[in-house]
Specification:
The complex is a heterodimer of chains A (about 160) and B (about 60). Chain A has about 160 residues and is of the alpha+beta class. Chain A contains 7 helices and 9 strands. In chain A, helix 6 packs antiparallel against helix 7. Chain A is globular, with a radius of gyration of 16 Å. Chain B has about 60 residues and is mainly α. Chain B contains 2 helices and 2 strands; from the N terminus they run ββαα. Chain B has a two-stranded antiparallel ribbon with strand order 1-2. Classes of the chains: A alpha+beta (about 160), B mainly alpha (about 60). Chains A and B meet through helix 1, helix 2 and helix 7 of A and helix 1 and helix 2 of B.
Chain lengths: ~160, ~60
């Protein structure tokens, strides 16, 4: 099993000039949530150029459909990404989910204004704002999202009213 | 109902929130938080692999 290297995955996406926004568990971790996550969730721009960059970035990492039996004739290329929307992959740098939109059908371009710019590992990339991460978790409404939700809200409160 | 200054805070859905862990994380940079997340995830993944391997070798005995 490959380990999980979110730092390397982020560097890889940046190196290939992929337009993406960090969402999900890693975003929650970036804000300080102390909770396990085993994949990097990113919202990507659905432009032809960006899909080509995304494919170029992930191809060297041998992406394969997570949970699928080995040996399927899966081909990761521009046409595959164009035909689909959301993908969950295992890669040599760990698991990554690439999503075309988030609950509410909000795309990369719509979410970009709801993100903050981060600088880490020698690259700059957007990360969904804490406020909108909370809204996303509320919208998703899954049990695991609801468990995280109260922690995110506590974190949000703590950031605004830090303990002495 | 929550007591925001206690070590453990109860969220609105009833589960415990470790505010000390959150406060400790807030002292780290985003890069440090990602690396911590990576270390924790890999610890668990390695543990799972070791457990699966032990279980598998036990079956073949």
């Amino acid at each position: 099993m490959a380990g999980f290297a979110p730092d390397k995955l982020l560097q890889q996406l940046c190196q290939y000039h992929v337009d993406f926004i960090v969402i999900g568990g890693v975003a929650a971790g970036i804000y300080g949530l102390d909770r396990q996550t085993f994949d990097l969730d990113v919202l990507y721009r659905r432009s032809p150029e960006n899909i080509a960059n995304l494919v170029a970035a992930l191809t060297p990492l041998e992406p394969y459909l997570r949970g699928a039996p080995p040996g399927l004739p899966f081909q990761f290329d521009v046409e595959t990404v164009k035909r689909g929307l959301n993908f969950t992959f295992t890669t040599t740098m760990g698991d990554i989910d690439i999503l075309s939109d988030v609950p509410g059908n909000l795309s990369y371009d719509e979410m970009l204004g709801k993100s903050i710019e981060l600088s880490a590992f020698g690259c700059n990339f957007p990360c969904i704002s804490l406020e909108h991460l909370i809204l996303l978790k509320k919208s998703a409404g899954r049990q695991k999202d609801l468990l995280v939700l109260s922690e995110l809200e506590a974190l949000y409160t703590e950031q605004r009213n830090p303990a002495e | 109902m929550s007591e925001s200054r206690s070590r453990k805070t109860i969220g609105h859905n009833g589960h415990e929130i470790d505010m000390d862990a959150i406060r400790a994380n807030l002292k780290l940079t985003p890069e440090q938080r990602i690396l911590k997340l990576k270390a924790n995830a890999n610890f668990i993944l390695n543990l799972r692999t070791a457990m699966a391997s032990a279980k598998s070798s036990g079956k073949h005995r």
